[in-house]
Amino acid sequence: MFPKIVIHNSISLDGSLTNFEPNMGLHYQIAEYYKPEAHLIGSNTARIGATLFGNGISQEEKRDFEKVKRDKNLPYWVMIDTKGSLKGILHVCRRFEFSRDIIVLLSEETPKEYIEYLKDRNYDYHITGKSHVDLKVGLEILSTQYGVKTVLTDTGRILSNLLLNQGLVSEISLLIHPLIVGKNAYPILSDVNNNLSLTLRKKETLDKGYVWLVYKVNK
User: Fold this and answer.
1) What pTM was computed for the model?
2) Can you identify the CATH homologous superfamily of domain 1-36+155-219?
């Protein structure tokens, strides 16, 4: 069974993802509402997150070569990394206590040394496409092999737009902030190829002018 795919992002009133300070507490409070079994994350977002929130890139230790044992109710963090750009960084992501463990999606063109790096450290990985990750196949693997029913992604425009263009998204969740970015806006959906029909499922006005909108993507 194909999992439910939810795009969840915090945006300005004019649809920008960046150049303002999002309310991360409220953002993750809403994300928790979905109780996802997996978070889908692009490699660039993972690299930035590891650097910003991991107190720098620390040296690997013996424990980083072993699978972690955490609460099975925690979500997997699923990284898309065909070029191996997270080599030497993944252990920082794995140490975050909010992740059950890391799963990496690769392509046939992923460097062999990166695959060996993953094997040596007991990461689950799956090769799902020739030059790019086949997202549909990767998501099906999450469902059949890991029992994932809901996948949430909140990592930005590129991955969100790819998922929408391939018709894989079930819902779009937007936390609208009461501000306008203007000429420096980085619009969330600017790379969607075609018109998409949506149905409003939820509208909540929150404290301090925030609005939470949830749309079903009509297939």
Assistant:
1) 0.93
2) Dihydrofolate Reductase, subunit A (3.40.430.10)
